[in-house]
Every structure is written in C-alpha cells, then in structure tokens.
Design a protein that fits this description.
single chain; 2 domains; five-stranded mixed β-sheet; 15 helices; binds histidyl-adenosine monophosphate
Length: 424
C-alpha cells in the first residue's frame, strides 16, 4: 500500500477544504436557480468521436490532451475534456426540436492531459452554463452577466472581462486566405506545431502558447479586419449593452479560444491574482455546432468556470464551518441506544447534531466536546437512560456556570420549549 498515490494532476479534496467548495457551490446553485437555469447531467465517459467532431481535431485539447482508451469492447472512449459537446449530443439525442429553447447548467470533473501547475490540473472541475436556441445579442449579454454576477456574488472583485468577435464562417473564410499566405511567408519563425497547422487548421495558430510564435503573430493580419458589416454591428451592440449594464470590458482581438466551435462572441474573465493560469471563465457563441453534430440549425452560447481557480479566488469567509449545535456524550448499554434515538429525533429539527461514537470514558468525551465547542451538550448515562431521560448541559454566559436540566425522551413539549429558547 505504501507506494500507492494519486495520479499526477489529480487532487484529493479533504473535508476541511470541501467546506469552502460546498459553501461556494451553494451560492452558485442559488444564483443559477434564480435565473431559471436548469441542471443537466451527462456521462463523464463518451465516444471519442464526439469530441473530435465537436471540439475539432486541430485543437490542443483533442490532439494532445484527451484521456482516450479502448474499452473491453474495442470502442474508443474518452473522459470528457469539457461539457459543451456532451450537452449538445444529449440534446440532439433526446429530441431538441420539441424543446428548442433551453437554459442549462452542469457541474463536474473534466479531464485534460496538461502539464500540472498551480490552477491547472489533469482532473479539474467546471461549472458550465449553456443557452440553447437563443440568437439575440441580449442572450450574449445575459450569459456574460450571469458569469460576472456569480463571481461578484462570491466577493471576487478584481476581474477583467475580455471580449472579441470571431465572426461567422464566411468572415473566417475571407480571413483564412490572407492569413495562410502570411503564415507561409513567416513559416520558419513559427514553432513546429504551428507550422503543421498552416494547412490543417490555420486559425488554431492564433491560439499558440509558444512565446516566439506569439511575438511573430503580433504582426499578422487581424481576423477583426475581415468582419462583415453584420458581424461588426453585432459586436458593437454587444459592447453597448454591456456598457448599459455597467459591466466593464476590454476588447482583445487576440482572444480566439482553444476550441473550434466558436462563432461571433468569445469572452474570458481573468484575474491577476491567479498568476499564469489567469482565466477563471471562458465562453462564447457556437451557432453552428448543433447542426454540425447532426441536429437542426440552432444558435447557442455558453461559458464554463474552472472551479479550482474559482476556489482560489473566493475569500476565506466561505471556508467557515457551521458550528455543531448539540454534541451528545453517551456511555453505557442503555445510554448508547437512547443517544442514537435522541440524535435522530433532534436532527428532525434541522439542527447539527454530533453523536459521540467512540465509546470512550465520560471525561474523554467531555474533552472532545470542549474542543468542538458545540452550542450545547447532552449527556446520556445509564442512570438516566433506564428512566428514558437525558441531561442537558448549557454554559451560562452570565454566571460562567454549567446549568443542567433533566428531560424525558418522550416529553416533546419540554424538548421543543428547550430548543426554542436556545436555538430558534
Ligand atoms: P475552456 O476555456 O476550455 O472552455 O475552459 C473553461 C475554464 O475551465 C477555463 O477558463 C479554466 O478556468 C478551466 N480549466 C480549463 N482547463 C483547466 C485545467 N487543466 N485545470 C484547471 N482548470 C481548467 C470550455 O471548456 C468550454 N466548454 C466553455 C464553454 C461553454 N463555451 C461555451 N459553452
């Protein structure tokens, strides 16, 4: 057993850390349900082809980062690297035509074989939101504002929203010709990966992480300069509406996103305090994906927030544990049975009850209770238990003394009275 360890790039989340995760998730769930967005759950394991067709063969995610293997039936399977392709597949498969407008969210683990570092893991978690069927610029603004408000609601203030437009397929086709010519001329200054992409998927070169290539690209023709009037107008309306909502943004014409399905609006939210992995949220419009995957022509837009990065940004006020309301000390044959019955009864009042199960001496259990500092302590010993009774110990702040009260297990009126005066 000694040498068994978790895989590189995966992380154990221990109970103390999970308090923050759970508190953050609770705030997120509230925000989502207030915006009438419904949850969808899709399998973590999918056919490899889904991601090749959905995300694009030339992307880093598909060509280098997927966890792909043959199952026992020789089918190529992949652990999902993201959620959008799966959501689209699930909608098409379950009859999107009968419900062409949908607002959906999902949360769960994703897998990418990347080099692990702070804020970057091989198994990480995303919250994704997808608006299906909506074409208007208002849906872009609503999607961006939902992401923005989730982050703000968590108290995260130093955020930058970067936006760009990737236009429609025609705009990109016009750009592609000029861009490929330029890439051919500058081929020798590009990294090998980018050189290989010139003929396969030239737009992906814009997404290169190679520092030298990035420098060379500074002088490349810009996709933005090839936009049609219509695409430009759409982008300009988006900016106006963001201004109306007082959501500050920065235009970033280099923002192309790492997945092939985007059209028109692309956006990312970054935070300087995250270091090199600064993007906490990424998203955009994908108007052609549903058709391309075999469904009816359906516009859509969405985003995903990386939860590990979100947790790094969220303040420690979210890491506060709910205090134990009642700690039940118990020892003895009859006492231990009554204590279990009592813990079940008291939990019905929505209180946080901790039942000591160590079977240790009374003094050891009291020591533990002192450490936990519950709001009150109940002691069940055999003497009381044979009479179906238990002792409540309360610390009196005025006299600095412990007060004791004996209550019968069946005396619900007295139990409620005591709960009302101490907990509600
Ligand atoms: P993405 O930009 O690939 O977009 O990922 C979204 C977010 O997931 C990133 O901004 C980052 O916070 C987090 N993330 C990605 N990779 C890692 C990693 N290796 N470790 C930790 N966090 C990571 C998508 O996945 C799209 N499906 C978003 C979308 C939804 N677009 C439209 N709808």
């Amino acid at each position: 057993m000694n040498n068994l360890k978790n895989l590189r790039g995966t992380v154990d989340l221990l109970p103390d850390q999970l308090i923050k995760w759970q508190n953050v998730e609770k705030i997120i769930f509230e925000q989502l349900s207030r915006a009438s967005i419904k949850e969808i759950r899709t399998p973590i394991l999918e056919m490899t082809e889904l991601f090749i067709r959905g995300i694009g063969e030339g992307t880093d995610v598909v060509s280098k980062e997927m966890y792909t293997f043959l199952d026992r039936g020789e089918r190529s399977c992949t652990l999902r690297p993201e959620g959008t392709a799966s959501v689209v597949r699930a909608l098409i498969q379950n009859g999107i035509s009968s419900n062409p407008f949908q607002k959906l969210w999902y949360m769960g683990p994703m897998f990418r074989y990347e080099r692990p570092q702070a804020g970057r893991q091989r198994q990480f978690h995303q919250l994704g939101v997808e608006f299906i069927g909506y074409e208007s610029v208002r849906s872009d603004v609503e999607i961006i504002s939902i992401a923005w408000d989730i982050l703000r609601k968590l108290g995260i203030n130093e955020l930058n929203l970067e936006i760009n437009t990737l236009g429609d397929p025609n705009d990109r086709l016009n750009f592609k010709k000029t861009f490929v010519d330029w890439l051919e001329i500058n081929k020798n200054s590009l990294d090998l990966d980018s050189q290989n992409r010139i003929n396969k998927n030239p737009l992906r070169v814009l997404d290169s992480k190679n520092a030298q290539t990035k420098k060379v690209l500074e002088n490349a023709p810009r996709l933005f300069d090839f936009m049609s009037e219509k695409s430009l107008e759409r982008f300009s309306t988006l900016k106006q509406q963001l201004e109306m909502l007082e959501i500050p943004y920065i235009e970033n014409f280099n923002l192309v996103r790492g997945l092939d399905y985007y059209t028109h609006t692309a956006f990312e939210i970054t935070s300087g305090s995250l270091g090199s992995q600064a993007t906490v949220c990424g998203g955009g419009r994908y108007d052609n994906l549903i058709k391309q995957m075999g469904g009816p022509e359906t516009p859509a837009i969405g985003f995903a927030i990386g939860l590990e990065r979100l947790i790094l940004l969220a303040g420690n006020e979210h890491a506060i544990t709910k205090k134990t309301d009642i700690f039940i000390i118990n020892k003895g044959l009859h006492a231990e049975v009554l204590a279990i019955k009592l813990s079940r009864k008291l939990r019905n009042y929505n209180l946080l009850i901790e039942l000591d199960l160590t079977g240790g001496s009374f003094s050891k259990q009291f020591k533990k209770a002192n450490k936990i500092k519950p709001r009150s302590i109940i002691v069940v010993g055999d003497d009381e238990a044979v009479r179906n009774e238990f002792v409540i110990r309360l610390f009196d702040n005025d006299t600095s003394e412990n007060k004791e009260e004996i209550i019968s297990f069946d005396d619900d009126i007295k139990i409620k009275k005591w709960l009302r005066s101490n907990f509600f």
